[in-house]
Each structure stands twice: as structure tokens, then as C-alpha cells.
Design brief:
Distance between the termini: 41 Å
Largest sheet: 9 strands, parallel
Shape: globular
Number of helices: 11
Order of helices and strands: EHEHEHHEHEHHEEHEHHEH
Number of domains: 1
Pfam family, one: DUF72
Helix content: 25-40%
CATH class: Alpha Beta
Number of strands: 9
CATH architecture: Alpha-Beta Barrel
Protein name: DUF72 domain-containing protein
Length: about 280
């Protein structure tokens, strides 16, 4: 029984000197983050496939139980829309190979225009993928959330491939008008879709975004504490990513989520002890 929690990135300016040591060499930032959380979203891989040497440094800074959920490059998902992707996919898989088991799942985030009529392309793409990796799909077309037939068809495609459906829960974000600049910006960029709380595999992945108020964020994730506790009791191994519009408090919030689950399931392994931000003194 293991719960992994994390954030959308491992380095963020508001964390420096508060939660993570500062200054800190770039090659040590992931190592410091990994003392707070045991998973991270790999959003940067959406924009470009990293150099293999860069990925080797990621592996060196984390233990084998650490989880990366790595987003496939946009050339594959958005530009080529899952067709004729062989060269790009091969380059990506080669680049991330040094992560080994840390590459928990490859994240296929599809554009909002990718709808029910495109499911044949998704099924074909998933069928061609190597079985050495676990796959998870995030969709943003409204029909998958409002049309039961489209939802069932997507579930069938994913289940046949052994892939998970990643929900991005934005309900708390949109529950009240934005109160900060970051919330206003998030309102223009984040998908406004119904929340989904069903798992298709033994390794569900959740993306949750709250508000810049830690209290509102925590109150909003209450349904997830129930669901994640139930999944763990069933023998599943979930990964939960905590976001806020400015992400300033995302690190401690991720740990707070884990702590709340651990109060319900005391046998759940604890997270690491965070790295000190300042040297310890005798006085």
C-alpha cells in the first residue's frame, strides 16, 4: 500500500528559502524537492524532449520509488494528433530510459478538440505503444464528461489498452469568482469540466487544483480523501498531484493531503523528512 503525492514542478521561485534551500544548484533542486514529495508531474517534456544526459541527472537525484508522470511531447499529441509519431516517440522513449521504474506513467494529454470521433486514432496509438511502460490519458473534450455513450467508448478504449484516465479536477477553482491575479489567469486557462472519480487501473492518477487560499484548497479536496482512502484499501496505488493557481503553498499542501490519508490508514508509509532550508544551530 503506497500513496504518492506531488506538484506540477520541482522548482518554483516562491519555494526558495521557505521550503527548499536557497541558493541551490540546478542539479540539486530535484533532490531537495524529493524530500518533500515522492512524485512530480513532468510538464516540461510537453514542450521538448529532454536530453538523455539531463534525464540521467533526474535519476541520480531520486530513488527508485520516486514517480515521474511524464507528458508526451506536443509534437505527438497536438501537432501530429497521434499519427505518424514513430520518430518522435522513439526519441522520447530513448531519452527517458535512464529513469527506469521512476517513469511511473507516460501522460497523453489530448487537446480539447480531440473528441469522440477521434477515438479510433487513440485506440490505434495505444495499441502501437511498447508494453514496457504504463500509460495514462487526459481528455478535455466536453462530450467525454457529458455524453454517457462517449464516456463508455473512451473507457473501453483505455481498458483494452490497460491505460488510465487522468481527471483534472477544477471544481474548487471555479466554485467562486477569482480573488487573486493567479486565480483570474487560471480561470482563462484551465478546463471547466465535471469532476471524475473513477479508476480504470490499479494505478489511478489525480490532478487537483484548488485556490490560492490553503483553507479553500483543503476543503475542496475532501471527496478525494475519501476516494483515495478507498482505493488504497482496495489495493490500488494512487498518485495525487496538488496544484493551486500560484502554487506558492503547493509543497506543504501535498504533504498535508498525504498526512490526512495517513490518519485514516496509519500503516501508510510516511513521506521523507524535508531538507532544512537553513543550517541547524545550537542556539
Amino acid at each position: 500500500m503506497r500513496l504518492h503525492v506531488g506538484c506540477a514542478m520541482w522548482t518554483h521561485a516562491p519555494w526558495r528559502g521557505r521550503f527548499l534551500p536557497h541558493p541551490l544548484a540546478p542539479a540539486e533542486r530535484l533532490r531537495a524537492y524529493a524530500t518533500w514529495c515522492n512524485a512530480v508531474e513532468g510538464n516540461t517534456t510537453f514542450y521538448a524532449t529532454p536530453a538523455r544526459s539531463t534525464v540521467e541527472t533526474w535519476a541520480a537525484q531520486t530513488d527508485e520509488d520516486f514517480r515521474f508522470v511524464l507528458k508526451l511531447p506536443r509534437t505527438i499529441t497536438h501537432e501530429r494528433r497521434l499519427a505518424d509519431t514513430g520518430e518522435d516517440l522513439t526519441a522520447f522513449l530513448d531519452a527517458i530510459e535512464p529513469l527506469g521504474p521512476r517513469a511511473h506513467a507516460l501522460w497523453i494529454q489530448l487537446p480539447a478538440a480531440f473528441g469522440p470521433t477521434d477515438l479510433g486514432s487513440l485506440a490505434s496509438f495505444l495499441h502501437r505503444l511498447p508494453r514496457a511502460h504504463r500509460y495514462a490519458v487526459e481528455v478535455r473534450h466536453p462530450a467525454f464528461f457529458t455524453d454517457p455513450r462517449a464516456e463508455r467508448r473512451l473507457e473501453q478504449v483505455l481498458t483494452r489498452a490497460g491505460a488510465e484516465w487522468i481527471p483534472f479536477d477544477t471544481e474548487t477553482l471555479f466554485r467562486a469568482p477569482p480573488a487573486t491575479d493567479a486565480e483570474r489567469e487560471s480561470w482563462t486557462k484551465k478546463p471547466r469540466l465535471p469532476s471524475r472519480r473513477e479508476a480504470l487501473t490499479a494505478h489511478p492518477i489525480i490532478r487537483y487544483i484548488g485556490r490560492d487560499s490553503a483553507e479553500e484548497t483543503e476543503n475542496g479536496w475532501a471527496p478525494w480523501t475519501e476516494k483515495v482512502t478507498a482505493w488504497l484499501a482496495e489495493g490500488r496505488s494512487p498518485t495525487v498531484f496538488i496544484h493551486t493557481p500560484d502554487n506558492a503553498e503547493a509543497l506543504p499542501l501535498a504533504r498535508r493531503f498525504h498526512a490526512q490519508i495517513r490518519t485514516r490508514l496509519p500503516t501508510l508509509p510516511a513521506l521523507p523528512t524535508p531538507t532544512e532550508t537553513e543550517p541547524l544551530t545550537l542556539f
